[in-house]
């Protein structure tokens, strides 16, 4: 493969790993969702694996995706997202910054990668040591909306199907269309 083409693929893959394409566009209003109550950022830090996410065009670029959250001196969170592009045998890393702008809503985080725009990262539900449900929705005049969502797990393949089904049911009953999820390939990972 020529260098230029490889560069383009890497750029696209980086965008995917940073989550910018884990978003979907649709008509209608944002659902009103419940956030994790008394969210404890300290217990949430550390490594998470991506179990599924909204909208993945190029599945092949985004396998083995993980995120590592650690506290910085300024109280913000350092975000290290990592993915693996199987057919290029290349690791892909993106470093970002997250924080909760409003102390009254600790589960509503803003995340930013490089000079890109900041995105919303709302923790709807987590038990801190096995799963996390992340979602956000931006509405535009009640006419259309842009949504992001991920289910993360502490172990690479650490959640039972029964538990996943429960989380999906709970999201559905909040009005989130879980059909938009695509499962992340976490098999044969080098990292
Ligand atoms: C996560 O990042 C922190 C801070 O950079 C590091 O100390 C820690 O080893 C990382 N954890 C994993 C599992 O990579």
Automatic annotation (TrEMBL):
InterPro entries: ApolipopD, Calycin, Lipocalin_ApoD, Lipocln_cytosolic_FA-bd_dom
GO molecular function: lipid binding
GO CC terms of this entry: extracellular region
Localization (cell): Secreted
SUPFAM superfamilies: Lipocalins
Predominant cellular place of this UniProt entry's protein: secreted
Pfam families: Lipocalin_2 (PF08212)
One BP annotation, GO: response to stress
Start and end residues of each Lipocalin/cytosolic fatty-acid binding domain: 41-185
Signal peptide annotation: 1-22
Alphabetic keyword roster: Disulfide bond, Glycoprotein, Lipid-binding, Pyrrolidone carboxylic acid, Secreted, Signal, Transport
Membership in a protein family: Belongs to the calycin superfamily. Lipocalin family.
Name of this protein: Apolipoprotein D
Organism: Sinanodonta woodiana (Chinese pond mussel)
